[in-house]
Amino acid sequence: MENLLPKTRPIKFHWLKLAKKQRLTKSIFSLEFEIPYSLKPNFTFEAGQYVTLKYLSNGAIIQNDFSMTSAPFEDKISLGIKINYDKSSSKDLFDNLEVGDFLEVSEPRGRFTIVSKPHEFRTIIGFAGGIGITPLISHFKNILHNEPRTRLFLFYGNKNTQDIPFKNELDELHEKYSDRLQIQYFYSQEKVGNGLFEGRLNEKKVALIINQFLNLDDTDEESTIWDAVDEVLICGKGEMIKSIANACYHHGIPKKNIHFELFEEFNEDIYPIEKEFALIENIKVDFKLFKHQYAATLKNNKVKLLQQLLIQGFPVPYSCKSGICGSCECILEEGEVELLENEYLTETEEKSGKILACMSVVLSKNIKVNFDLNF
Ligand code: FES
Questions:
Q1: 175 vs 30, 44, 133, 187, 328, CA distance in Å?
Q2: Domain locations in the chain?
Q3: Centre of ligand 1 from the C-alpha of residue 89, in Å
Q4: Which of 47, 110, 134, 237 could form a disulfide with 142 if both were Cys (CB 3.0 to 4.6 A apart)?
């Protein structure tokens, strides 16, 4: 996940030693870091979280976020990293970092997590596209290890049969837990002789998957596997997440049970906005950001708060622009906004006045906001 913040909030880094580096496909490699005993409390994490790596590339200090593929019980930090193009900073990282080197790694963060329920019989479905498999591997390993009754289904899309990151690790998992884990692969750029497995993972494919793989339930003859789904985990590009999340929702899964992680900026809402808002013009916004006090005037409330501040050149932190990453989290100190559906804030946080600028429609002539939550 590339870090797109114009400025970052304070993050705690520690020097970790690289224990392993491995190329997985033409464009994807993995890194594994040791956690020394003294830093174990700092690197306690939940499945589905990510860390930030800080490193030098082309004379500049780069900070990029990468989801962990390791599960908490494995006691190490493993990452899957995609080289997007030949001169990218991740290519530099692959070329220049050697086993035994030390690198600055942040403490784990992120909310693409679910509550562990070791005593329940659950059905969990995962959809991943390409490098989007990384947090799902962490989740799947964790669930298979901690929840002996939970069954899992993974639907994994890639371009072709040659370029599947973490295929060996997935094969090993499948071999070890074949009674509880099913994996189906899909290919967007290769014919494999069966139309079901060809093409992108999208809304249509979800309908086919439900009919073909998630139908009659051996454990409950009066029901289907799809009826029994407790949680859905989705990770990949914005278009894919939007399409699959909406398909799952339309096929009856409550939004609170559909979890997603985005690996790129996405300027659209994942779920369509169903409300209409009264037009308000010439809105005064006072806000605190990185210890500075700013004032801005918004033309109207047709565009959400974050986007308007970015257009005016303010260095507001952001990453996904879709209510998933929490980078634009702030407190509404005065005025009124409508906070649209988001994947990040808890009910308690929303009640305490926290909002996400990327999901906020301003509803009053003046608002006052504070982005400095951690100062
Ligand atoms: S930019 Fe990601 S939640 Fe707002």
A1: 22, 28, 18, 22, 42
A2: 13-106, 123-262, 281-370
A3: 23
A4: 47
Residues near 241 by Cβ (< 8 Å), separated by ≥ 6? 234, 235, 260, 262, 266, 270
- CATH architecture, range 13-106: Beta Barrel (2.40)
Reported as a single tens digit per residue, the pLDDT across 208-251 is: 999 999 998 888 888 999 999 999 999 999 999 999 999 999 99
Ligand 1 and 88: CB distance under 6 A: no
| Domain over 281-370 is classified CATH 3.40.50.970 | no
Tally of residues, the chain: 375
Report whether residue 327 contacts ligand 1, using a CB cutoff of 6 Å.
yes
CA of 98 to the centre of ligand 1 (A): 34
Atom of ligand 1 minimally distant from the CA of 320: 2
Query: 77 CB less than 6 Å from ligand 1?
Result: no
Ligand 1 center to 11 CA (angstroms): 17
CATH class for the region spanning 123-262: alpha beta
List, in sequence order, every residue forming a beta bridge with 77; answer none if it has no partner: 33
Q: Please give the Cα distance from 249 to 85 (Å, whole number).
A: 35
pTM for this predicted structure? 0.89
